Every structure is written in C-alpha cells, then in structure tokens.
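Researcher: Here's a chain I'd like modeled. Treat it as a single chain, no partners, no ligands.
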Amino acid sequence: MSFTDWFKDIKPVMPVMVIEDINDAEPLAEALISGGVTCLEITLRTPVGLKAIEILAKKFPDAHVGVGTVSKIEEMQRAVDAGAKFAISPGITADLCEKAKSLRLPYAPGIMTPSDILLGKQFGMEFFKFYPADLAGGPKMLKALQGPFPDLKFCPTGGIHYDNAMEYLSLKNVVAVGGSWVCPVELVRNKDWQAIKTLAKKALPNI
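Model: Modeled as a single isolated chain. Structure tokens:
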C-alpha cells in the first residue's frame, strides 16, 4: 500500500513525539488521541523510542503508531518488529527506500530538493516528508514542486505551528503537516496532559 492511500483516512496532523521518559509514553498518547489525533510519530531521538513504539502499538491498536527519525535500515526493521505501522526519515537514501519497499511499509523519506524526489521516484515513492519546511522554502517551494511533480504528496515538517499549518494544508500537494507544537517537550516534561489534549483539539478544528 502506498503512503498516500494509507493516509487518506487519517487526520492531517502528525505530532512529532519526543519521549524522554518511558513512563510518559501512554499518558502522552492518551492525551493526543483523546484530543482527536490518530497518527502518532514516535521519534528515535531518545533511547526509549523503540520501547515506546512497542508499548503504544499494543496499548492503542486502533491508532496509527509509527516511527520517525529513521536513518538506518536496522532501525526501520526494529521499529517494524516493535509494531510500527509506518516510517518517516529526515532524509532519503536508496537503502532506506529499498528496505521499506521490501517490508511493504508506508514510508515517507525526507526531501529538500527535486533531486531528492527523483531518487525516491526510482523506488516508487509517492509521498515525501518536506523537511525542514521553513528553511527549504516553505509553501512557495511546495507550490513550485507541483509543476514538475503534479502527482506527488507531501507532509511538511520543521517550523510548522498552529498559525501557519493551514497555509500549508491549503496546498493541493500537502495532505498532512507534522510538528512538535501539538506536544511540546516542555509540556511533556511537566506531564501536562490536559494542555496537550487542548492543543490537539485546537489544531484539528482549524485544519
């Protein structure tokens, strides 16, 4: 299944979850899900990322739990073994594209240039993470990419927040936005789950 087909029924907000304390995994996911967010990207930026995926995939089988910040094929395999339903990378390599294809795993490699996109297209990729969106040209760059790549879809991440998410989502080639503004690290550290639930609810009605 392609990532674009898989993503059709998912809310267009993907929280980038940085979990430092494994005990925060369940209450953080509960806060986001109760706020209406159904797609959870657990990053591998911390040592407990894979364990968090394993816990949340079992605890919330109806949610879409996936892995982010994948940079090695071994990480992708371990994440799938832990229960990840999709994978996202900050960049793109042939090895990662081949691995995702062999696993039949919905995968969004990170791209910043047309050359990156051409590499992904060699492996049948139709959905890309546009990162870092703000530094890579923002909405203007995504509009420019519509011309040579009219059938591709993107999830911009990096510099996305409540005030500019709609500008991105109004573009024809953007189906989702990702970012940590829905679950800021400071709120997670303070275990302010109600505030995170409120942020999730606030994001969705405007998107």
